[in-house]
Write a structure and sequence with these properties.
homodimer; 358 residues; alpha/beta; DNA-binding
Chain lengths: 358, 358
DNA sequence: GAATGACCTGACAACGTTGTCGGGCCTCGT
DNA sequence: ACGAGGCCCGACAACGTTGTCAGGTCATTC
C-alpha cells in the first residue's frame, strides 16, 4: 500500500533532516526539539512524545559539531591518540584500553599511528587540533615536545605514554624501563652468566636508551665489565635482529646469554638461536611479552609490560584533567612482571662454580 | 626583557584565536583570512603575507567543524571504522592499513572495537553518525545490517570487511573463508589423514560457519565421513581451546590431525598438543597466521590471511565511493596463502598405504 | 480578585566558518 | 575620456545547533 515500487531500497539520496524538520513535523518550536533531544526539563510529557515520534520517523540524528560549536564549553567529546606503531601489539593493547575508557564516557577516539616518524607527530597533532579534540594521549617520537605547550595553555590536556616528553610538563605513564632492564640482567647474572649480549631498538628512542642504561648499570653493579662488542643498538625489525644475533653467536668468544629489549627484536633473536640450534644453550630474557612466547621451545622468559594498565591509567589521567583536576602533573611508572618460563634459566658458565667463587 | 617572570610556562589559559582575531591583527577582513588559510586565489601577495604572519603569531588553527558546517558538501574528512576486536592482531593490521590510506587523503579515522558485541555495533554507528563521519568501514557483528540503509541513502558510503553483511547491498572485502578452509583440509587429507578435528569460533560468527562448511564440504568431496565428535564450535579463546583439544586427544579414537580455524584457538590447540607431548604426532593446520608461528616446534603450517590487503582494498573502495563512484557494489575476495612450515605435514595413517589404497 | 510563581514554549542571537555578491581600484583598448 | 574587465577585498547571510530571554497559561495564595 505504502510502497510505490518493489525495488529493495529507495535509491534517492534523502536530505539529512535537521531539528528544523523535526520541529515542523511535530508542530513545535525548534528549541523544544533541542530540549527533548538533550533531555532538558520543562517539556510537557505529550509534547515530548510528539517530538520523539517525529524524530523517529525522520530518523533524525543530532549534529554534534553544530551543537559543540554553539555550546558553552565547546567540548567535542573526542580525544586524539598518537601511537608509535600499530604494527606493535603493545600499542594495539594500549589503544584498546584507552578506547574502552573513552567509550564508557561517551568519547570517541581518533587514533593515528606514527610509525616512529617525527614529522608524523607534528602532522597528526595539527590534524587533531583542527578537529578540536578535547585532549591528547601521545607517544612522544620527536626529541622536543615544547611546541605542544600552546595546546595545554588552551585547556586541552595531554598525557604522554611509553616515553617521557621533553619540553613540557604533563602527566606521563611509562613502564619501569630502567629498573626492569636491571632486573632482567640481574636474573641472567644469577644464573651464572657474565657474557650477556644486549639487543636494543633504535638509539633515538628513549626507552631503548633507558633499557641499555639499566643493562649497563646492572652489569657494573655486579662487577661485570661489559664487552662493547656485545652491545648492539639500532635494531628495529626481526630480520636485522636475526642477522646480528647470528653474528654475535659465531663470534670467537660468543655471549652465553642474550637480553633482547624489544618485541620484534626478540622474534629475530629466537629465530637466530633456532637456526644455529643454540636455543637450549644460550639463555634469553626478553623485554615486553612476545605473543605466544610460551609456545616456543624453550618457552621465553620475559619482563612483561602491562599495556592494558598503561592505557587505562593514561585515559583516567586525561579524563581527570578534563574534569578539572589541576594538581601538578604526575609521573606514573607501571612495573613489569618477570615471567619465568625457561629460556632465561639456562645456566651460564659461572653457575657451576657459583657457590665456591667470589 | 620581554619575559616578566621566570616561571617556565605561561599558565594562563588563553582564549583560542578565531579568524576574527587574525583578521583584526592583520588589519583585513575576515573573509580574506579565510581565503589565505584555504589557499584561494585573489589575494595580493603582501596581504597574504600579513595574514600568514598574524595567524602564525596567534598560533591560529582553523576550526574544521565550523568550516564543514558552512561548506557546501558538508564533508568532515573523517571516516569511522568498526573492528571486531582489537585484541585480534588481524584487526590491528587492518586498522593500520586503512589508517594509512586515510591519512594520505587528509582523512582522520575513528576506530571502535566491538568485541563482537551486537549491541556495540549499533551504539558505535550512532556515535559516528552524530559526528557526521563521511563513510564507514564495518565488520558486521549483528545478524542484520538493514538498519544501516538510511546512512547509505544519505550519501555516506559503507564497506564491510571480514564478514558479509545482511540486509544491505554494499562493497565487501572478505577472505576466501570457504575455499581456504577446503584447501587446508585437502592439505591434511593429502598427508594421509582421515580423522581431522575442526576447532571453530563462535557459531554465530559468519566466518566461523563458512570455515566449518568448507571443512565439511572437502571431507565429503574426498569421501571422508565426518565424525561429529571431532567438530567443535563456539570456541573463542585459548583457554577453552586448550581444554577441548585435550579432551579430543584423549578420546578412545582420537583425531590424527587438527584444523584450527581461528587465531586464539590455534594458540590454545598448540598448548594442548605440547602439554600432551603430541605436537610431533598430530598434524595441525591453522587458519589465519599466528604471530611468530614459525618459532614454535614444529613450526605451524597456516592458511594466512592478508589483513593489509583487506584494509587497503576496503579503504580504496570507500574513497572511490566518496569520490562519486556509483557502480554496483563489489564483493572482493582476498585469497589466502598456504604457508607450509611443518606441523601440517606430519603424515597420517593413510599415508603409508596411500599409493596402494583407493 | 489580583498577585505570585511554577511550568511550558518559541523568537532570536550567537558559535566560527564559507558562499555570495557587490564595490573599489587599476589597466587597457577605443 | 570612457567603458570593460580583471583583480582585490569585505559586508552579509547562512550552516545546525544551544543559551537567553520574554511571554503565555494555569493553579495557588492572601
Amino acid at each position: 500500500m505504502t510502497s510505490m515500487s518493489d525495488v529493495p531500497a529507495p535509491r534517492q539520496a534523502s536530505r539529512r533532516p535537521t531539528m528544523r524538520d523535526v520541529a515542523r513535523l511535530a508542530g513545535v518550536g525548534i528549541k523544544t526539539v533541542s530540549r527533548v533531544v538533550n533531555g532538558e526539563p520543562d517539556v510537557s510529557a505529550d509534547t515530548a512524545e510528539r517530538v520523539r515520534k517525529a524524530a523517529d520517523e525522520l530518523q533524525y540524528e543530532p549534529n554534534m559539531h553544530a551543537g559543540n560549536l554553539r555550546r558553552g564549553d565547546g567540548r567535542t567529546h573526542t580525544i586524539g591518540l598518537l601511537v608509535s606503531s600499530v604494527a606493535n601489539p603493545f600499542a594495539a593493547q594500549v589503544h584498546r584500553a584507552i578506547e574502552r575508557v573513552a567509550t564508557e564516557r561517551g568519547y570517541a577516539v581518533f587514533a593515528t599511528s606514527l610509525e616512529d616518524d617525527p614529522a608524523a607527530e607534528r602532522r597528526a597533532i595539527t590534524a587533531l587540533a583542527r578537529r578540536r579534540v578535547d585532549g591528547y594521549v601521545v607517544t612522544p617520537v620527536r626529541d622536543d615536545q615544547s611546541y605542544l605547550q600552546v595546546h595545554l595553555d588552551r585547556g586541552n590536556p595531554m598525557v604522554c605514554i611509553d616515553r617521557e616528553p621533553t619540553g613540557i610538563d604533563v602527566d606521563t605513564v611509562v613502564t619501569s624501563n630502567y629498573d626492569s632492564a636491571r632486573e632482567a640482567v640481574r636474573h641472567l647474572i644469577a644464573q651464572g652468566h657474565r657474557r650477556i649480549a644486549f639487543l636494543g631498538d633504535l638509539e633515538r628512542i628513549q626507552t631503548a636508551q633507558l633499557r641499555r642504561d639499566g643493562y649497563l648499570a646492572e652489569l657494573a653493579d655486579q662487577g661485570v665489565s661489559p664487552d662493547p662488542a656485545l652491545t648492539v643498538l639500532d635494531l628495529h625489525d626481526d630480520t636485522s635482529a636475526t642477522a646480528i644475533t647470528r653474528r654475535l653467536l659465531t663470534l670467537p668468544d660468543p655471549p652465553t646469554a642474550i637480553f633482547s629489549s624489544q618485541n620484534l627484536v626478540t622474534v629475530g633473536a629466537i629465530r637466530a638461536l633456532q637456526q644455529l640450534g643454540a636455543e637450549h644453550d644460550v639463555a634469553l630474557v626478553a623485554f615486553d611479552d612476545v605473543e605466544s612466547g610460551d609456545l616456543v621451545t624453550p618457552r621465553v622468559t620475559v619482563v612483561a609490560q602491562d599495556p592494558d594498565r598503561i592505557g587505562r591509567l593514561a585515559a583516567e589521567r586525561l579524563f581527570a584533567r578534563l574534569d578539572g583536576d589541576v594538581s601538578p602533573p604526575r609521573q606514573l611508572v607501571v612495573p613489569t612482571r618477570l615471567v619465568v618460563r625457561g629460556s632465561g634459566e639456562i645456566p651460564g658458565p659461572g653457575r657451576a662454580v657459583a657457590t665456591g667463587s667470589t
